[in-house]
Amino acid sequence: MTLTQLKYLLSVAEHGNFTLAAAKSFVTQPTLSMQIQKLEEELGVKIFNRNTKPIGLTAIGHTIVKQAKVILQEAQRMEDAVAQEKGSIAGSFRLGIIPTIMPTLLPMFLTNFIKKYPKVDLKIEEITTENICQLIHKGQLDAGIAATPLGKENILEKPLFYEPFVAYLPQNHHLLKQDSIAVEDLNHNNILVLEDGHCFRDHVLNLCPTSNTTKGFGLKSGSFETLINLANQGLGMTLLPYLHTLDLNEQQKRQLLNFPEPAPAREISVIHSKNQLKLPVIDALRNTILGVVRGAIAFDNVQIIAPKKK
User: Where do the structural domains in the chain lie, given as residue ranges?
Assistant: First the structure.
């Protein structure tokens, strides 16, 4: 039994097809099939039911796949332990980033990181906070970038920056005559918010719990652009994370209002398991982000709004 055979095994179990699994594993289909057959012969059982489409697991196959995942994870941890001892910044690294930060933060640091650490095979996925935490717990993500504090057991949070909230209002809104906007102003206006599942929605609802959401239509959107367009139609105001406002056009920037200090803000952190061994890569990632964000966000006097409802 080899680790390569176990990797092929998991690929077939995931894709339900030998040809596709071989392509994903960068080997020929006969090579992969032969290795799976050798594994079955060594164990003396049939792992896959080849008469179904997609190919399914036998009863014992489910148990073998579960154990194969554990073996491969432990083998990876051994490699990670050696890399940590050497201080090596290399190898595969799986990163999850929440949807409300990925479009703005990723372009700021990705090129710098890739150029500085070419030996890191970085895999990035846009995913919600809850799913990031679950995948970190399962060992399927090495780290995440999310709004904190989360208070999750066995997950460490390393703050990167504090991102203030900025109000975006329809043109000619009476509040635009003011120099700034107060939280009390939100409680008397319709607020456009993201759909359930986005932590930024919870930030907004925690900030102004007595405000009205826009009535008269149903809205499910994970896009700040949609909220901006609806605000432009006079259907309500919305709140945006500060980084998202940097790419607005000049007219849109005239429709922004900042909060007075201490401004409400969200804390953005790198999160990872307390047992994570790829700390050199995590530190390199964090330092790269800090290096580019310092010039874009210079806010220290802020009030952190919790990402989850109380």
Answer: 3-84, 89-161+266-304, 162-264
Please indicate whether residue 218 or residue 58 has the higher confidence score (pLDDT).
Answer: 58
Cβ neighbours, 10 Å, residue 47: 23
Q: Which two tokens stand for residue 131?
A: 């799913």
Q: How far is CA 141 from CA 121, 127, 220, 271, in A?
A: 13, 11, 28, 10
**What homologous superfamily does CATH list for 89-161+266-304?**
Periplasmic binding protein-like II (3.40.190.10)
Integer angstrom CA distances of residue 147 from 4, 67, 116, 295: 37, 33, 26, 20
Record the tokens describing residue 69, joined without a space: 């995942």
**Taking Cα atoms as reference points, which of 130, 129, 124 lies closest to residue 105?**
124
pLDDT for the residue numbered 85: 63
For 156-181, the pLDDT digits (tens) are 999 999 999 999 999 989 999 999 99
Q: Which fold has domain 162-264?
A: D-Maltodextrin-Binding Protein; domain 2 (3.40.190)
| Amino acid code (one letter) for 14 | E
Using alpha carbons only, what angle is made at residue 204 by residues 203 and 209, rounded to the nearest 5 degrees?
A: 110
In sequence order, which residues have a C-beta less than 8 Å from that of residue 127 and are 6 or more positions away?
96, 97, 98, 99, 135, 144
> Would you identify the CATH topology of the domain 3-84?
Arc Repressor Mutant, subunit A (1.10.10)
Collect all residues with Cβ–Cβ distance below 8 Å to 164 and sequence separation of at least 6. 242, 258, 259, 263, 264, 265, 297, 299, 302
Cα–Cα distance between 103 and 248 in angstroms, integer? 13
Distance CA 85, CA 78 (A): 11
